Amino acid sequence: MKYGITGCLDRLSLLKTIGFDFVEPAASSITKMPEEEFKALQQNLLDHHIPAPAFNMFFPSDLKTTGQQVDFKGIAEYLHKCLGRCKKLGGKILVYGSGGSRKVPDGFEHDRAWQQLVTFFMFAGDIASKYDIVIVIEPLYKKNTNIINSVGEGLEICRQINHPNIRLLADSFHMIHENENPEIILEAGTEYLHHIHIRDEAEGFPLEKDRSYFDRFLSALNQIGYNRTISYEVSSRKLTLEEFESQASRSLKLIKSLVEN
Question: What is the widest separation between alpha-carbon atoms in the chain?
Fold first, then answer.
């Protein structure tokens, strides 16, 4: 198993010290970077010997994938630039959460929006295959968006799409808030489950107080033989560097112990 964390591009040395294996940058930010800034990031990752196999925050909210404003020409242009840059940084996984992009507009039929997403994922999967990248669908709780809110729904659309470059992500935070049983992981299996996000119910590092839930969550991963990537997607900017290092270190020790148990 490899363990990473989203963002934190200004803390690469500290991440290595703590014991993280990789970093997961924001794809939308990478895509809009000026060329010189992108090259500097590329060099910084190389200098710190920390890979970036996964990227989150795929689509900006104004690039719609449901509703009346879906523009496949614009989507194709964005996909090629985004995927191309992520590929240059070593990307293999792109997380499609993008709640604003996929939010179904008021008055728009849900079934029609669902079919729009099926069409979009087929289209995006074909382009992703050219870059040897897998797009993983991230189910988001209802506060973030109004379609694909559970791993069960994510699994349903993955099966419907049936594309080798479109797979599924499970995020503990969204599962907790949607009251989704971790046993859904058993149904998804490694055939569909391709990446994991973890955080506690308040978007912090899972710590000893969270042992019971994450014992169940990680036990399900162990039962399906999952041995890919797990990223912490935490809100950590309010923490001092000392608090960040302490909490991240303790959490990583806890999670590894539960995985290896």
Answer: 50
